[in-house]
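ok trying again, last paste got cut off:
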Amino acid sequence: MKYFKYITFAVLGLLFYSCDDEFLNPLPDSAIVVDAFFDSDDDVLAGIIGVYDAIQGVNVNTESNTAQFNRGIQFEFMVTEMRSDNTRTATLEGSRADFHRYRVDANNVQSEDYYQSMYEIIFRANNVLNFIDVADASNQAAYQAEAKFLRALAYFNLVRLYGPVPLVTQVAGPTDNELLFTRAPEDQVYAQIISDLQEAITNLDNSYKSRASSAAAQGILAKVYLSQPSPNYSGAQQMCEAIINSGQFSLEQNFRDVFYDELNDEILFAIQYEFGNVQESQGFSAEFTATIRQGRQDGLNIVNDNLVADFIQYGGNRTEVSYVTFPSFVEVTKYLPEGSDVSTFPPTYGQSPGNAGNDVIILRYADVLLMHAEAIMAGGAQTSDGSAIDSYMKVRERAGFDPVDDRPSSLSKEALLVERRVELAFENQRFYDLLRFGVADAVLSAHANENGYTDYNPRKLLLPIPSREINLSGGLLTQNAGY
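nice, full thing came through this time. structure:
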């Protein structure tokens, strides 16, 4: 990350204890820390920065082998966007193509890496929490809150994708198999996520956009409340209104600036990368190209026709920022590598597209506004509540729609869902939205039938627990149904 680069080397040598053949299974050697490391406030801060480094992940251009290099969130589009009706791969070959065809099995290396990467975040956060009392007394509450925020984020990703997962909230030793491999019920995982985020709200301020903040914790907690098995709609509404009423965030006037004027007024939380620096960059931007291939693959996250149809009808001025149409493919343009020019054919993608510096936005204000409308709707089919429609229309108006002529008297669930689709396309939200709105099976079943994806069934809404993790547990870790 740009902000954290100065401290990276201090962290790497101290947190990567894992052996080559163990990597980051739920018993990494890095879970067993050396007491001498956390000796001072600076050490604890370095440990916190190391958690962000785990989220950022390793660019494929650093280590080209797919498996076991902690890609962090750099594979997130595969486990989310490509499992929705938004995107696909350019070819049908390889394990990456299994995501959009619902053929992911327990040996899929990208799913395994994502699962392990989330636990690396968790274990690093737990390491920090184990030594909080080493920090200066004035920093302890904030450091603890920050580590818990990051742990909550990782668990939120895991529980939505894999269902019940091992809930590890302390540093574990090599014989703690029950702790490390016993799947906790979803409601227990959500309870821990909520507790961690509530502490973050109380003990963090809004100094950062590329680190945890109170507002980011409020926004993610709102999404947690909406996503948990028994949604807390009033709690979600309160969290969204706290952000809205703070006056600290606003929509960018120009939709393109959201993605290319980084850490702008719309951003609540983003993970940063640095262009041209193989150690601090990301490689997925290059993989989104296909007509003039810039990545190692033939093209990933290629836009589906049914999303294009929604953009044509509902996208407004967001359309030209979100994707571009070439003779062979429709490609994502929210993450164009520095120096790209896609205004002519053939397009160009700069001098170092594989070492892109585009941030990954975890949460932005438009998402909060649309969640606010969703919370007020409270699982119903529609709402005529003026404040819900106001929040919905703020996003629509920025897209060029008329505040009077295009304002509905009643906002339907279908309209809100499609608005989230075109506003947040390619930002790893669509799959989760379908789950949260209770329409994932209906939408994805129809999508699979239309495209001949015969392997889809409702059980595929959860990813399989990686076989490697089950094997390491000696069978204690159980598999999801249908795999």
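cool. The chain has three domains: 1-93+104-204+439-477, 205-270+364-437, 284-358. Confidence is low (pLDDT under 50) at residues 1-36.
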